Structure to design on (191 residues):
């Protein structure tokens, strides 16, 4: 995804971690122009993700990021576009208090880290970027994918989880979240 400004000037790392402040790097702190460009990138990514998932409205935007305690991992390829860089995609996660049903149908209250939005630019999908981004987040959060909940996962994302993490057996829920066999088992062991 290309932008009419220098992506490398805003995002110094291959993967940047953004929170409510939308400060992408030390350089952009106190630089309203760079922060405005950061917001443009997030809005554009959110729109593209919504379109790819056929959602009526984006679930990710700069203003939503500012009002929620989510974390957004943003990946760039700094060498493309004549050295100005391109944005490859993003992964948004956050903790949610959920009422879940275990295998026996017993209600469990939990506050797992949830994958809320995930998008890799159309022309770069199926090249391993999604896996690199997801693995980065897992390391940063020190988590196994089975311990997470997934908000309305798309067919492509379900296929991704099955392929890379053998997550196939989900436990039926009454909300939009998907958790997999092992979620409740591992929770019990961790308590
Ligand atoms: N059709 C089916 N499966 C796909 C597709 C596709 N078009 N694209 C990726 N996958 C899955 C497959 O399992 C694929 O393995 P395969 O090529 O051997 O079949 C695997 O992902 C490839 O892994 P990566 O290359 O690491 O994944 P990628 O970089 O494509 O990122 C992602 C995966 C984020 C799901 C990407 O395909 C995408 O942006 N899709 C459109 C938006 C979307 O559906 N996002 C998930 C929203 S749900 C949520 O966030 C909770």
């Amino acid at each position: 995804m290309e932008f009419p400004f220098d992506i490398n000037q805003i995002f110094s790392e291959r993967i940047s971690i953004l929170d409510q402040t939308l400060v992408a790097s030390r350089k952009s702190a106190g630089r309203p122009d760079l922060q405005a460009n950061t917001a443009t990138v997030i809005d554009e990514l959110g729109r593209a993700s919504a379109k790819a998932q056929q959602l009526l409205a984006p679930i990710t935007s700069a203003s939503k990021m500012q009002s929620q305690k989510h974390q957004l991992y943003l990946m760039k390829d700094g060498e493309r576009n004549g050295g100005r860089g391109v944005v490859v995609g993003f992964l948004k996660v956050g903790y949610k208090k959920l009422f879940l049903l275990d295998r026996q149908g017993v209600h469990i209250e939990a506050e797992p880290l949830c994958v809320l939005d995930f998008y890799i630019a159309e022309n770069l999908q199926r090249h391993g970027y999604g896996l690199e981004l997801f693995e980065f987040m897992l390391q940063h959060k020190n988590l196994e994918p089975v311990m997470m909940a997934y908000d309305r996962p798309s067919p492509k994302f379900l296929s991704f989880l099955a392929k890379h993490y053998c997550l196939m057996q989900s436990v039926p829920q009454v909300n939009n979240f998907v958790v997999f066999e092992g979620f409740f088992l591992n929770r019990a062991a961790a308590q």
Observations:
- Residues 32-52 form the longest helix (21 residues).
- The pocket of acetyl coenzyme *A is lined by residues 49, 52-53, 115, 117-120, 125-131, 150-154, 156-157, 159-160, 163 (CB under 6 Å).
- The longest strand covers residues 86-95.
